[in-house]
Structures are given as C-alpha cells and as structure tokens.
C-alpha cells in the first residue's frame, strides 16, 4: 500500500510532533494530530499549517474511531506507554513509538502483551538507524566483509541535562531516555553482546545511579567491542566501527569519516544527505520505512525487549517501576 493512502494519527504537538508532521506532509500525508494544551496546538499550527485537536488523546478517543489508523506517538517520555496502551485498546494495529518507548521495562511488557493480544505491530523510533551516515556505513560494512570490532562513547553534558525541564523521574533513567540512541546504533551495526563486562562509578546531583561508565565484550557477530562515557567530564557521542579495510567514524553521528588501512588520514565520506539536511536527520527514511512496511532497520518492540538487559547491565540498575 502506498504511504499516501494511509490514515495517520500523530499524537504529540511538541518538537518531535512538528518534525514528524513535516515529513508526513512531504510524503503526501495530512495526519490527524492530537495534542494536549490549546496553546501548544496553536504553536503547532503556526509551524505546520495543520490544525490539531486539543485536550489530549483520551478525550479525542471518546468521540473518534481510530481503528483504521496508523499511529505515531511523539509525546513526553512519561506518557509514551499510556498513549500506546490507549491506542492498542482502540484497535490501532501499527504504531511507531518514540524512544525509549516507556519509563520502565514493566511498562514495555504491558505494551508488548497488548500488542500480541491485538495482533498489532509496535516499533520503537530510533531515528539514527536511518541517518544517511548509517545507511552508507551499512553498505561499506557489507562490502568489507563485516564488523571486526567497534568502540562507542555516550557521554552526556552534565550542565545541559541538569538545566532541562524534565522531571526527576525522567532524568533518573537518562541513560535509557537519551544515551540509548548511541548504544542502540552501536549494537545494531556491530551485533548485540554475547558476553559483556560493565563497570560504573560516580554520581551526579540529578543522576545518583552513576556518572562514569566503561565496559567491553564480544558481540553475536563475533566483533570485540568496548565503550566509555563520563558524564562528569568533557566528551561527546561517537561510534567507531572497524572492518578489515576501514575505520568508520561517526563523530558527529550525522557524518561519516573514513580511515583507510595503512593510512593515518581521516576523510569525510561523501554522503547523499540532502534529506537529512531538509528534515530532522533520519526521520524521513524512518517514516518511509514504517509507513511502507520496510522493516529491516526498524526496531520491533519484541526485539527491543529481548535485548533490554543490555541497558540494565550498562546502566547498573534495573529500570523498573519499583525503583522510581
């Protein structure tokens, strides 16, 4: 089915809702949009030209049937699970749920149970899987015969996060809420851990569970890997993928740098990234894949939960409702 024939419900009128809407309109889709406050809905209209229903998704569902819709959920992290469950109970069969999908593993399991009961598909939106840099790297990795090792860093900027207007509960799971972007992409490209040792030290005023992270292991693709992050020191997000022929460097993540074998020179790879410059990087191809059932790079909820212990081990705590 062509994407322009799909009926799409977009829940959320904040930054991500606006960015999703821009892509949908470019694909020839005028979504039904639902937000909470009238003020946010008016701001959404100013940015997109689309009138959004205010009052929240619960109020909207009281009078509207969404059973034939495909849904994109781009609400705040603490409302993701509740919104997904509401839509699944209204027989929405295909949902793209913004990362990290929920506040806890228990919430994710509730979504999974209901999705299976309703024969619905739920995907977690990790848009960096669809960056032009990622798509190019996938081709290079295949050409070179696979990943032999990889390194990644997910340092967060302490002062920037501390000043964000997120709740204490969201900041308390910041590794899952934000750093998981890097972790997901690293293991997506290099393979999920088969064996892994993890170490944690320090704490921050807004994140008592840790500030410095280090670890290493071997992936199910046979690649050795290591990672590091120090949220109490300078640093940045980065991934380095090593094949027998090249080192592929994502630093920044939107760009791809290449170091050839027997060379110290590092050059930027010539990316076809016009789409990533026009829209929020990764979003266009992610939505195109979701709407047109091209699922190879999409993260299915079942796969997400299957590997959720990765985040628990790296973070050093079990992310569950009893610990909030």
Provide tags for this entry.
single chain, 324 residues, alpha/beta, 8-stranded mixed β-sheet, 23% strand, disordered C terminus
Brief rundown of the structure:
The protein has 324 residues and is α/β, with parallel strands linked by helices. It has helices at residues 15-26, 38-48, 57-63, 80-89, 105-117, 132-144, 158-163, 168-171, 174-190, 274-278, 283-291, 301-306, 309-315; strands at 8-11, 32-34, 52-53, 70-73, 94-98, 121-125, 149-154, 193-201, 212-219, 224-230, 237-242, 246-250, 257-260, 266-268, 299-300.
Measured between the Cα atoms of the first and last residue, the distance is 42 Å
Count all strands and give the number: 15
By oligomeric state, this entry counts as single chain
Give the overall pLDDT as a whole number.
94
User: How does the major sheet shape up?
Assistant: 8 strands, mixed
Task: Give the arrangement of secondary structure elements.
Blueprint: E1 8-11, H1 15-26, E2 32-34, H2 38-48, E3 52-53, H3 57-63, E4 70-73, H4 80-89, E5 94-98, H5 105-117, E6 121-125, H6 132-144, E7 149-154, H7 158-163, H8 168-171, H9 174-190, E8 193-201, E9 212-219, E10 224-230, E11 237-242, E12 246-250, E13 257-260, E14 266-268, H10 274-278, H11 283-291, E15 299-300, H12 301-306, H13 309-315
Parallel strand pairs: 1-2, 1-4, 2-3, 4-5, 5-6, 7-10
Antiparallel strand pairs: 6-15, 7-11, 8-9, 9-10, 11-12, 12-13, 13-14
Give a structural overview.
- The chain has 324 residues and is of the alpha/beta class.
- Helices cover 37% and strands 23% of the residues.
- The protein contains 13 helices and 15 strands.
- The strands form 2 sheets. It has an 8-stranded mixed beta sheet, covered by helices on one side. Strands 3-2-1-4-5-6-15 form a 7-stranded mixed beta sheet, with helices on both faces.
- Helix 2 links the parallel strand 2 and strand 3.
- Helix 4 runs parallel beside helix 5.
- It is globular, with a radius of gyration of 20 Å.
- The protein starts with 7 loop residues before the first strand and ends in a 9-residue tail after the last helix.
- 41% of the residues are buried.
């Amino acid at each position: 089915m062509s994407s322009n024939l799909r009926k799409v419900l977009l829940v959320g009128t904040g930054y991500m809702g606006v960015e999703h809407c821009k892509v949908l309109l470019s694909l020839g889709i005028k979504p039904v949009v639902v937000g909470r406050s009238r003020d946010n809905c008016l701001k959404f209209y100013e940015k997109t030209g689309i009138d959004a229903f205010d009052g929240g998704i619960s109020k909207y569902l009281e009078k509207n049937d969404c059973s034939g819709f495909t849904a994109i959920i781009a609400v705040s992290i603490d409302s993701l699970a509740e919104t997904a469950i509401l839509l699944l109970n209204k027989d929405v069969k295909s949902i793209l749920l913004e990362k990290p999908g929920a506040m806890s593993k228990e919430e994710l399991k509730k979504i999974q149970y209901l999705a299976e009961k309703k024969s619905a598909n739920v995907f977690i939106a990790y848009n960096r899987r669809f960056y032009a840099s990622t798509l190019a790297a996938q081709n290079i990795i295949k050409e070179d015969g696979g990943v032999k090792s990889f390194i990644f860093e997910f340092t967060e900027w302490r002062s920037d996060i501390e000043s964000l207007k997120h709740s204490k509960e969201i900041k308390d799971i910041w590794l899952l809420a934000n750093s998981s972007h890097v972790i997901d992409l690293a293991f997506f490209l290099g393979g999920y851990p088969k064996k892994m040792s993890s170490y944690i030290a320090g704490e921050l005023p807004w994140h008592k569970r840790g500030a410095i992270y280090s670890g290493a292991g071997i992936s199910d693709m046979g690649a050795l890997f290591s990672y590091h992050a120090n949220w109490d020191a300078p640093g940045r997000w980065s991934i380095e993928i090593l094949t027998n022929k090249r080192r592929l460097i994502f630093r920044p993540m939107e760009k791809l740098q290449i170091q050839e074998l027997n060379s110290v020179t590092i050059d930027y790879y010539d990316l076809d990234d016009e789409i990533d410059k026009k829209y929020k990087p990764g979003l266009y191809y992610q939505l195109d894949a979701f709407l047109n059932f091209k699922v190879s790079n999409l993260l299915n909820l079942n796969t997400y939960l299957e590997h959720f212990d990765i985040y628990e081990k790296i973070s050093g705590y079990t992310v569950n409702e009893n610990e909030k």
